[in-house]
């Protein structure tokens, strides 16, 4: 009897913990705790504040492909009950995919617009990279809020600076020397983020990095990451500027996944 009571008590405790966990996630403001559909809904709410045309564009991108596919199906695919149902389902699927593609495109644009000009905004673009990339935002920062981010992946070891160009040049040069000393033969690529000549705008940064030639194997990336940890351990922790919030949970919607 005592064992049965203990088992019941344990079961009740586990159920209570599960309910508490569900309630915490339900009321959480951390995107990482949200389910996929809540991520999409919350992303839509934020995007629509900055993009008033979003609802109309999504509606049009749903209606037009749906109507085209359905019309083609009815004209060339037969008028039997099964064929009609099949073409209706196919048309709705095409419309939904088109609407989500437009949503992902506008969401990315609105996100970049929202954070553009804020200190540390380069982190937003780095979060759009695939899981093959490891990014460390704000590894160095000055009192004027000029910052340096770092990412490493198949296309190389990359330092991204954002701030006033004149102040960034010596900061990036110093960070490049430090990284070359521990990277051992791996070239360090330097990018200045911004809208001036020779700089890469925030909304183009992700695609710019992806277009760089592939130069590192998975084994080499792992090796360099281990050496970078030693470099980071020797430097004081950089104070992170108050800029973009973490989008770890919602970035899948931004990337159209």
From TrEMBL:
The chain crosses the membrane at residues 54-78, 84-105. The keyword Transmembrane applies. The keyword Transmembrane applies. Keywords: Membrane, Transmembrane, Transmembrane helix. Residues 236-257 are annotated as: Disordered. It holds the Pfam family DUF4191. This is DUF4191 domain-containing protein.
């Amino acid at each position: 009897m005592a064992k049965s009571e203990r088992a019941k008590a344990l079961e009740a405790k586990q159920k209570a913990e599960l309910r508490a966990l569900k309630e915490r996630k339900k009321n959480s403001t951390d995107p990482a705790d949200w389910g996929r559909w809540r991520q999409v809904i919350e992303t839509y709410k934020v995007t629509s504040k900055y993009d008033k045309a979003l609802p109309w564009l999504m509606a049009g991108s749903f209606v037009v492909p749906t109507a085209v596919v359905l019309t083609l199906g009815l004209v060339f695919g037969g008028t039997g009950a099964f064929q009609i149902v099949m073409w209706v389902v196919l048309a709705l699927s095409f419309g939904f995919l088109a609407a989500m593609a437009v949503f992902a495109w506008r969401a990315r644009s609105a996100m970049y617009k929202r954070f553009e000009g804020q200190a540390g905004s380069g982190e937003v673009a780095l979060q759009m990279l695939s899981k093959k990339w490891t990014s460390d935002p704000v590894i160095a920062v000055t009192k004027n809020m000029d910052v340096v981010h770092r990412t490493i992946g198949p296309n190389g070891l990359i330092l991204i600076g954002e701030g006033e160009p004149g102040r960034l040049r010596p900061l990036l040069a110093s960070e490049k020397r430090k990284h070359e000393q521990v990277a051992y033969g791996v070239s360090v690529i330097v990018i200045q983020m911004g809208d001036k000549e020779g700089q890469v705008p925030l909304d183009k940064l992700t695609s710019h990095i992806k277009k760089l030639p592939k130069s590192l194997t998975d084994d080499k990336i792992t090796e360099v990451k281990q050496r970078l940890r030693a470099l980071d351990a020797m430097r004081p922790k950089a104070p992170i500027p108050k800029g973009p919030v973490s989008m770890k949970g919602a970035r899948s919607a931004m990337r159209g996944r």
